[in-house]
Design brief:
heterodimer, A: mainly beta, 7-stranded mixed beta sheet, 3-stranded antiparallel beta sheet, B: mainly beta, 6-stranded mixed beta sheet
């Protein structure tokens, strides 16, 4: 069974801080994703990666960056946290080359920026 | 561009009543469609996908390309079905991203 692990369940940070959200998957999936989940807005894609050192912008990349140095790890970086980045962040992975392969999600990191 | 519309934010039914969560999509190619579910304090997880044509926990969903819909149905709702449900769309093949709808909260009352 696929396991996607997000390092923190809850984080509280101050405005202007640099924030790192870490995600690790154990199924050798090529694709990894970062979404944010907000009430009434659903899931919105921030960034994704097809392979090591590759990254693509999603629908709302502003204020974020990512890092994928190893296949199993995908990090989301908030360069200078702002209050409007208070949200639930979900990491997911997906196998490529398989029709209708689903996303496998982590438990999420609830980030509060004060 | 791909788009998923879930018109209801909240659907409240009584136990034993039929349930239909609506999902409409916009996509120019051959879509892959999914329903995901998130129970309270649990991770988001796959419920079913259109290619499988399966029934999971009594839920079914049929892809209607003419109406561009993928509604989720269950004939008799149970209290444990209360959760947030998301419809999602992907382009064909494993390299496309998934686009999610805004979600529908299903509340099943005793």
């Amino acid at each position: 069974d696929v396991k996607v692990t997000q390092s923190s369940r809850y984080l509280v940070k101050r405005t202007g801080e640099k924030v790192f959200l870490e995600c690790v998957q154990d199924m050798d999936h090529e694709n990894m994703f970062w979404y944010r989940q907000d009430p009434g807005l659903g899931l919105r894609l921030i960034y994704f990666s097809y392979d090591v050192k590759m990254k693509e912008k999603g629908d709302i990349p502003e204020g974020y960056s990512v890092s994928r140095e190893k296949k199993e790890r995908f990090s989301l970086i908030l360069e200078s946290a702002s209050t409007n980045q208070t949200s639930m962040y979900l990491c997911a992975s997906r196998a490529t080359g398989l029709p209708n392969s689903p996303l496998h999600f982590g438990n999420g990191t609830r980030l509060t920026v004060t | 561009a791909q788009r998923v519309t879930q018109p209801e934010k909240l659907l409240s039914v009584f136990k034993g009543a039929p349930v239909e969560l609506k999902c409409n999509y916009s996509y120019s190619g051959s879509p892959e469609l999914f329903w995901y579910v998130q129970y309270s304090r649990q991770r988001l997880q796959l419920l079913l996908r259109h290619i499988s044509r399966e029934s999971i926990k009594g839920f079914t969903a049929d892809l209607n390309k003419g109406e561009t819909s993928f509604h989720l149905k269950k004939p008799f709702a149970q209290e444990e079905d209360s959760a947030m449900y998301y419809c999602a769309l992907s382009g064909a093949g494993g390299y496309s991203t998934l686009t999610f709808g805004k979600g529908t909260m299903l509340l099943v009352s005793p």
